[in-house]
């Protein structure tokens, strides 16, 4: 393969003009066994390129410890894309947004209260450079200049929506160049004055991101960069969901019409997303508009290919437009993956969280309640415990401030929720003998976009009873990544409050299925040791996607952590995804 070259308003590969028709597929949101299936569907739709982000927090989960195995094996994803016959665009910016936890930045950065990210702050840049030493070395063999499929790479991501530090952007550019990244480099920003001013770098190709009005967007791009190719690096053909919202859907005809307008003119387009996938585990991000808005587990995004890999009406509408302009042959799709209805599963065993603490957590004692990051914890829950002397008249308990949602217990009795929304205090009196206070705090996803990204989790300042701050805390970090240490007992009706439930189901034929949780309130689901993600009765998502490769023939184990208890500890494994 040869380099992608810019000449005036055109792109060339092998001295031949090329119109990039690309689609975003995130390897880290798809089980590796399905990478080929999704890439073949991209190719079958008439696309010639795949684009992916690279999440730093997945690849360096602990500082200095790197992970490129399984779902993090980006090299294998690139090799499959090459084999399928697709060009590859990689966006390895330290920050990716992507509705991904902390925009891809590793949570351990926040253990340093003085850390400043996405700017020329040397302690931050030292950590980026160490990450790039490992990551970029893996990508170099796959550049087109070395015979691979990677035609372009991104410097930073929508940086103009965040800042204007050109010295920082230049450092990221140079960090890539000195590590032998010699393919086309680009930036991508919204089509506004401040975004293009803040996010672009000298001698780096500028592209824009939008969901509609392409003429207007490209006119703004040309204002700043006359005679540059019109490239939309993120054409938002769908959208994502926050908990408690309606499920987003966009008319396929509208998507196709906007796309057709760009195809006609010869603009290059990258669909964001072509196939969205899933925020497995605790990797969903959050936004902050008027309030904190955590993103759901599904990243279906109303795409041409659904979360579970199904071809949608949008796929056909988009392919029809491409076929008007390119010879893409007849539609040949990979064999469809069966959807299985395995039926109901009863949770036969359980253990209450308070009984499980010593099994899965080592307590840490401090005068002040500390954030998760300062406790060396990235994701999950933390239980904060203290003793309050009595007697005291009824007064309000206040967490200053909670990130993101706390269950309050007084002498093991559940009193209610204090959260980042409108539930600010809980009042109670303290008897003469005093009370034990337990605060179970959930990290619901760090903010991934905007000015409030500095989002440490747990209790960030302190806890007060009336005006008096409470000290002498015992903290139990609960990252929930060691549930194999749990000892369960036979389920009984006394199981209330936060608890783990366990059940088994047998499978003869393997396929995709969906976990339906009627009567459950809030928690997460683990199948055969793999965390599928969170559920919450507020919707819109009503089922969790369980890909077939996570299921095995014979007996399978399902563990559910439920915060608020359930009257009927049963789930159903059904063949239909319910997204609201």
TrEMBL record:
<feature type="domain" description="Beta-galactosidase galactose-binding">
    <location>
        <begin position="498"/>
        <end position="556"/>
    </location>
</feature>
<dbReference type="Pfam" id="PF21317">
    <property type="entry name" value="BetaGal_ABD_1"/>
</dbReference>
<dbReference type="InterPro" id="IPR048912">
    <property type="entry name" value="BetaGal1-like_ABD1"/>
</dbReference>
<dbReference type="Pfam" id="PF01301">
    <property type="entry name" value="Glyco_hydro_35"/>
</dbReference>
<dbReference type="InterPro" id="IPR048913">
    <property type="entry name" value="BetaGal_gal-bd"/>
</dbReference>
<dbReference type="GO" id="GO:0004565">
    <property type="term" value="F:beta-galactosidase activity"/>
</dbReference>
<keyword id="KW-0378">Hydrolase</keyword>
<dbReference type="InterPro" id="IPR031330">
    <property type="entry name" value="Gly_Hdrlase_35_cat"/>
</dbReference>
<dbReference type="InterPro" id="IPR008979">
    <property type="entry name" value="Galactose-bd-like_sf"/>
</dbReference>
<dbReference type="InterPro" id="IPR001944">
    <property type="entry name" value="Glycoside_Hdrlase_35"/>
</dbReference>
<protein>
    <submittedName>
        <fullName>Beta-galactosidase</fullName>
        <ecNumber>3.2.1.23</ecNumber>
    </submittedName>
</protein>
<feature type="domain" description="Glycoside hydrolase 35 catalytic">
    <location>
        <begin position="10"/>
        <end position="323"/>
    </location>
</feature>
<dbReference type="InterPro" id="IPR026283">
    <property type="entry name" value="B-gal_1-like"/>
</dbReference>
<feature type="domain" description="Beta-galactosidase 1-like first all-beta">
    <location>
        <begin position="369"/>
        <end position="479"/>
    </location>
</feature>
<keyword id="KW-0326">Glycosidase</keyword>
<dbReference type="Pfam" id="PF21467">
    <property type="entry name" value="BetaGal_gal-bd"/>
</dbReference>
<dbReference type="InterPro" id="IPR019801">
    <property type="entry name" value="Glyco_hydro_35_CS"/>
</dbReference>
<comment type="similarity">
    <text>Belongs to the glycosyl hydrolase 35 family.</text>
</comment>
<dbReference type="InterPro" id="IPR017853">
    <property type="entry name" value="GH"/>
</dbReference>
